[in-house]
Design brief:
Blueprint (H helix, E strand, L loop, with lengths): L4 E4 L2 E2 L5 E5 L2 E5 L7 E4 L1 E4 L3 E4 L3 E4 L25 H18 L9 E3 L9 E6 L5 E4 L6 E3 L8 H9 L19 E7 L2 E4 L5 E6 L2 E6 L8 H12 L4 E7 L5 H6 L3 E8 L2 H10 L4 E4 L2 H4 L10 E4 L8 H10 L3 E6 L2 H12 L8 E9 L9 E8 L3
């Protein structure tokens, strides 16, 4: 094993690790804070960078705090609990701004940051069952389960459920246990109630002034209150005859857009989500197709406004091509990854030898997942004239 090395952490990068340098080579240091001096072993030596083990702090930053979770650093969930929350927000803004500059070749301008509750915010939690029947979360970089009895980022309703359910044998599943052939299950909690996979199938939650239904096993945002906070900004300035909601999921945004437009169209590749979207927004026209396939169909005409909420991989080239061709007057882009967002905005707003298709009107960082390095961004874009 190599001798421990002493490093100075320069910044935190996307993914949550600190960045230091050793003989000119980048070193990624977990659970560190910019400005700190740390001592650590080199756990992995890759061709272009090094990965450090968990560091011993030689000179701590004033931004460092004591994590409230007893399994922090062991559990594979949170990776920023050692940072005071205000500093987490500053670092996320820096990561977003640097991605837009380095990858998108764009000046971000002002970034509005919307904070969440720092703890007790997460409504949707996935649990795993250990071989001895206890429940917990996956260990960091491992397939083993860390038994837990509490989680400080889980919503209060989920924390209450955890306090009463520490072993598989004591859980009331209902008609069928969800563990056949797997060791994981979902619990959703909000405002004093919980829904447990195997006991409940469909969940209804209040989002802004709407009530949205979704399948418990399907994807849905895990911070309900932040989603409600985001909706007014997403809708601001949108109205007209036709609106498109790409990657619409269960129709959460479509439900609000349908009130402001004559025709609302939703596109989603997951047939189960589309079926639920049709119950949430009966007046809308939904298409069960991948976005990159739908944009090549005759239905992909002109729209007054388009909302896109793609997965972490961002917008595919066919989707970006459709947006540049059709140039809706208003475009809202909700992103969960600053790297793919920067790539896409570089394409949509870059000159590439001609006039950019869009310009950025406003940019907001919504901190859906405090104590983690995940970044959600809402970008409002406007079409440039022909």
């Amino acid at each position: 094993m190599s001798q421990p090395v002493t490093l100075t952490v320069e910044k935190i990068v996307a993914g949550g690790d600190g960045l230091a340098f050793l003989d000119g080579k980048a070193v990624f240091v977990p659970f560190s804070v910019p400005g700190e001096t740390v001592q650590c072993d080199i756990a992995e030596d890759r061709r272009d960078f090094l990965i450090a083990g968990i560091p011993e702090i030689t000179e701590a930053s004033p931004d460092r705090v004591e994590p409230p979770c007893p399994v922090y650093r062991i559990c594979g969930g949170c990776n920023l609990q050692h940072l005071r929350y205000e500093r987490q927000l500053e670092i996320k803004e820096t990561i977003l701004r640097e991605a837009l500059t380095r990858i998108g070749k764009l000046e971000a301008g002002a970034i509005r940051t919307v904070a969440s509750r720092a703890f007790a915010y997460r409504n949707r939690v996935q649990f795993h069952a250990a071989s001895d029947g206890t429940i917990g979360f996956m260990r960091k970089a491992s397939s083993l389960v860390v038994p837990v009895s509490d989680c400080p980022i889980a919503a209060v309703a989920v924390q209450d459920w955890m306090a009463k359910n520490r072993e598989i044998s004591g859980i009331e599943w209902g008609k069928q246990s969800p563990l056949a052939g797997k060791n994981r299950f979902l619990v959703f909690g909000y405002d004093g109630w919980t829904a447990v996979e195997g006991r409940e199938t469909v969940v209804t939650v209040p989002i802004a002034e709407k009530r949205i239904r979704f399948h418990l096993k399907g994807f849905f945002q895990s911070n309900v209150d932040m989603l409600s906070s985001l909706v007014p900004e997403l809708l601001d300035g949108l109205s007209g005859d036709r609106v498109l909601d790409l990657y619409c999921g269960v129709g959460t945004f479509t439900a609000f857009l349908a009130d402001r437009f004559g025709t609302a169209v939703g596109v989603e590749h997951n047939p189960h989500a589309v079926a639920m979207a049709r119950t949430n927004v009966p007046s809308a026209d939904f298409h069960d197709l991948p976005a990159e396939e739908w944009v090549l169909t005759p239905a992909a005409g002109n729209f007054d406004a388009v909302v896109v909420d793609p997965p972490r991989t961002g917008l595919t080239e066919p989707v970006r091509g459709f947006l540049k061709r059709s140039r809706p007057a208003k475009l809202r882009y909700l992103s969960c990854d600053p790297v793919t967002l920067a790539r896409d905005l570089g394409d949509l707003c870059g000159s590439s030898g001609g006039k950019p298709a869009f310009r950025i009107a406003s940019l907001s960082l919504y901190d859906f997942y405090p104590q983690t390095s995940h970044i959600e961004t809402l970008v409002s874009l406007e079409a440039n004239g022909a």
